[in-house]
Amino acid sequence: MTLAEPFWLILLIPWAMLLWLWRLPSRWLGALRAAVLTLVLLALCGLSVVLPARSGTVVLVADRSLSMPADSDALEKEAADLVYGAMPRDDKLAVVSFAETAAVEQSPQASKFAGFSAEVGHDASRLADALDLALSLVGGEEPGRILVLSDGQWTGRDVSAAAARAAAAAVPIDYRAIERSSAGDLAIERIQAPESVLPGESFMITAWIASPLGQTISYDLRCGTQTIARGTTTVPSGTSRLVFRDTAGPSGSSEYVLDVEGAGVDPVPGNNRARLLVGIRGARPVLCVPATSASTLPGLLAKGGVSVCPKTVAECRWTLEELAGYSAVLLENTPAGRVGHAGLENLAAWVAHSGGGVMLTGGRDSFGSGGYFKSPLEPLLPVSLELRREHRKLSLAIVVVLDRSGSMAIPCADGRPKIDLADLATAEVLGMLGPTDQFGCLAVDTVAHEIVPLSDAVEQDIKRNLILGIDAGGGGIYIYDALVAAAKMIQGAKAGTRHIILFSDATDAERPDGWEKIVGPCAKAGITVSVVGLGTEHDCDAELLRRIARLGGGECMFTNVAQELPRLFAQDTCVIARSTFIDEATSVRSAGGMAAISGQPLGGFPRIGGYNLCYLRPSANLALVSEDEYQAPVLASWQAGLGRALCYTGEADGKYTGAVAGWSGVGDFFASLARWTAGRQQGLGPGVVVTQELRRGVCRVELHLDPGRQTAPFTRLPELSTLFAPPGESATSKTTRMSWSSPDGLLAEVPLVGSETALTTVHADGLGQTTLAPMCLPYSPEYLPQKPGQGAAALERLARATGGCQRLTLADVWRDIPRRPRSVPLAPYLLLAAVILFLLEVLQRRTGLLAVRWRPWRRLRPLAAAPAAAGPPRMAGVAPAVQAGKPQPPGPPPAAEAKPAAKPAEAGGGNAAIQDALSQARRRAGHRTKRT
Predict the structure, then answer these.
(1) What is the signed CA dihedral for 139, 142, 143, 144, rounded to 10 degrees?
(2) How much is the pLDDT for 527?
(3) One-character DSSP codes across 462-489
(4) Four-residue CA torsion sign, 426, 551, 576, 360
(5) Phi and psi for 36 in degrees, rounded to 5?
(6) Residue 324 Cα distances to 255, 329, 355, 727, 752, angstroms
(7) d(CA 114, CA 163)
(8) Which of 235, 251, 280 delimits the end of a domain?
């Protein structure tokens, strides 16, 4: 036995004094009180006993990555059922699954595993993370084992550290190898080229081809849309090389894709295509996206000495590897919808985390009226795009019709149901309106439900809560009924501008018959109708929605990304309000911030023909301001994260350019804006070299310092800001702190997953920042070719390091759980016993029942030993007959009466026993009286 907190034993002194000074009326009560105090004291001291463990935990670790066989989930579920079926009564089973991440499928419990449900991805095998998680489920003192079901192909962190922790905790790791068939697998084992080259430099691309047998294969190497090499070749069994040559183009990055194909059926086609990125060092140009092909802006920039690359918005892919080739992006009067949600997110992330620049110019298709309000790019702009009430020309009446059919309950990419994002978009419209405007909302499935009746846009909190409470659950939206209800609601509106926003699923618009009879009269009455369709322009009901918007005189916008709904609703409201673009010639004056952009003050600036009404954000740099009633910013800039953002709200080339078009300094003006947005050429200065390489799915970034340096080059450790984006998807960012790997070097590791591209920027205080060439894996590491038994050998090394073994019979894992002593605390049991004894003490105090069986026996034992002939005791001076209460027959007295009188002690023996019992009863009563 052990005491966890023996210092509580000091209470023995006051408790002993308490028992001595406060004596209880009987030994029974004293013994009970002493026992209660002793049990409580032992509980406070943490009394525990060491017993052998009788139960343990087995954690099943299941690999769910792409490298596993197609039916691996079913095989692993069957394995879990076998382990559960052999589990003893007191043991527990836990299940952990892993791929890109590790997750607990079942916490330790004595129940059957229901199946895999966690989202862990598929493009990686983070076995080390899974082992750490499994080890945490075993517990600190409880014995257990870990059973790994995997092919032994792991990525990410090395498993040796996790194995060392398991060995230190005496938790063996067992394994069962489950490997896919690799017979006949033709694969690109790896592909290699220089990380970066100079423009015009020739370089080699080498690919290693693994073939299970000698055969003739075909190959195709492309750079973008250009074919570099194509043909057939004969390869032997084993590994052989294919060598290609190419010449680097202008600065930026080039993407190469190699495809190989064999003669037979390939069981793993995922490793027959490899992707490679090559960075091209040099001054990066500015990407200019003109409003039209006839725009003169790219030519003006080129004449101003700016290296410019003009592209139409349709030619831009907005991927990280494309953006990495430019120093800045200039969007000339380009609608946000043409860029797309993923493009806007990548552009915003590239500016904030990779040091790029973005410049917007004005026009009717830009800023608020162009859909940038509530877009991913808006927070980076130095101007805000909200619709301020004091600058509104006409009051608005808007009725929003929401599709609440069952399809709206389907979750989107971030897990939220589509209806929730539609609710947020509707609430955004309400928030843009003022007290003089009117607002109404309908939710429609097979019938129209009035959520907010048409009324002044006041008490917005109450109405917002009603809108956010709309949920999905009906049938498909009945278009005709929806339009009838909306027209009936808005026809009595008092506002000068009346508008209906119809939101519908582009594949679920039902019963439209007769809609023309509603929309046509509405258009004649000045009521416009816009449509927001959730889907694509090619969906089955898309043409119907376009026709409704065309006849209603409004816009028709489609998106298959539900997160874009707030932006589209806000854009339509801005267009209807017609107050975000000022189409009148306006004088402009220069502000002090112009010198920070161009390097010198700007003299007189020509009148502009129109501009987008925006508002300067706090701490933004104001360079040009309008001289009309709004005093609005025309040119503003600021630092946006690691990059720069600049907004010129006038039109650069078009109907509303104004006198700027004929100004002699227009070329130098726009060139200075582009140069400022692009920023200075990046670099960390002399004496510092940054390198990166791929190793087992991890990008290793190293910073090499000059060994002869005299002072510390930076005040704190450098950071990596890395953007990750799979093809066609939005980018995410991650910040990694570098650490010292040698006296003259720092290192940081960035894991890559699947087909995503990683763009890393190194930022060091005092040195500046530099963006490295984009990196990617050839293909998912899960498709890497493996030799037979290679994965099982890796698992065998892991098991040997921890004392585990291969499990051919899974049920035997319970038999080998290590038994080890376990400390069992007794405090709960001691306190329970103390409570029971305390209740017995109370019972004795109130009733005395505990002594009723032995007290009479102890006191009356002398009477039981008297001779039987003595008869019953009698009272002094009373005849026996009288004592008995019976009449006696006449006659001489009994012979016993003639004997001499007994001694007093003998004569009074019976009375003394009775009196003693009565006196004790009186004392007990007295004690009770004192207590009360």
Answers:
(1) -40
(2) 93
(3) HHHHHHHT----BSSEEHHHHHHHHHHH
(4) positive
(5) -60, -50
(6) 12, 11, 10, 14, 18
(7) 28
(8) 280
- Both 553 and 432 in one domain: the answer is yes
- DSSP label at residue 283: -
Q: Which comes out higher in pLDDT, residue 140 or 580?
A: 580
In a domain, 887, yes or no: no
pLDDT surpasses 60 at 746:
yes
Domain boundary among 280, 303, 330: 280
Residue 893 maps to a domain: no
Q: Are residues 535 and 404 in the same domain?
A: yes
Same domain, 112 and 154: yes
Indicate whether 930 belongs to any domain: no
Give yes or no for a contact between 272 and 260, defined as CB atoms under 8 angstroms apart.
yes
**Sign (positive/negative) of CA torsion 490, 495, 497, 501?**
negative
CATH of the domain at 334: 3.40.50.880
**436: number of Cβ within 10 Å:** 15
pLDDT at residue 379, as a whole number? 93
What count of other Cβ atoms lies within 10 Å of the Cβ of residue 894?
11
Q: How many residues are given for the chain?
A: 932
pLDDT tens digits, one per residue of 488-545 = 999 888 888 899 999 998 888 888 889 999 999 999 998 999 999 999 888 889 999 9
* Shared domain check, 544 and 483: yes
The domain that holds 703 is classified in CATH as 2.60.40
Round to whole Å and give the CA distance between 689 and 733.
24
Q: Is residue 299 part of a domain?
A: yes
Residues 376 and 415 in one domain: no
pLDDT at 682: 66
Residue 178 CA neighbour count, 13 Å, CB half: 24
> Is 444 found in the same domain as 495?
yes
Q: At how many degrees (to 10) do helices 516-524 and 542-552 cross?
A: 30
Residue spans of alpha helices (H) in 599-679 = 666-678
The arrangement of strands across the sheet holding 2-3 comes to 2-3, 47-52, 821-825
Residue 432 tokens, joined = 């843009």
SS3 661: helix
pLDDT digits (tens, 9 = 90+) for 804-831: 999 999 989 988 887 666 677 888 888 8
Structure tokens at 243: 């060598």
Output the 3-class SS for 755-780. Answer: CCEEEEEEEECCCEEEECCCEECCCC
Is pLDDT at 423 greater than 90 in this prediction?
Answer: yes
Q: Which of 474, 528, 525 is nearest to 504 (CA)?
A: 474
Q: Tokens in use for 191?
A: 């592909």
How does DSSP assign 210-271, residue by residue? Answer: EESS-EEEEEEEEETTEEEEEEEEEE-SEEEEEEEEEE--SSEEEEEEEEEE-SS--S-GGG
More confident residue, 743 or 715: 743
Q: What is the pLDDT of residues 658-670, one digit of tens each?
A: 999 999 889 999 9
> Same structural domain for residues 251 and 393?
no
**Domain range spanning residue 747?**
688-707+716-774
User: Over 196-222, what HEC string results?
Assistant: EECCCCEEEEEEEEEECCCEEEEEEEE
Least confident segment among 22-26, 177-181, 437-441: 22-26
Instruction: Provide the number of structural domains found in the chain.
Output: 6
Examine the domain organization and report whether 463 and 565 are in the same domain.
yes
Distance, CA of 519 to CA of 557 (rounded, Å): 18
Give the pLDDT confidence score for residue 475 in this predicted structure: 76
CATH number of residue 203's parent domain: 2.60.40.10
CATH number of the domain bearing residue 443? 3.40.50.410
Pairing of strands 102-109, 477-478: unpaired
pLDDT in tens, 852-900: 554 554 444 444 444 444 444 444 444 444 344 444 444 444 444 444 4
pTM listed for this prediction:
0.71
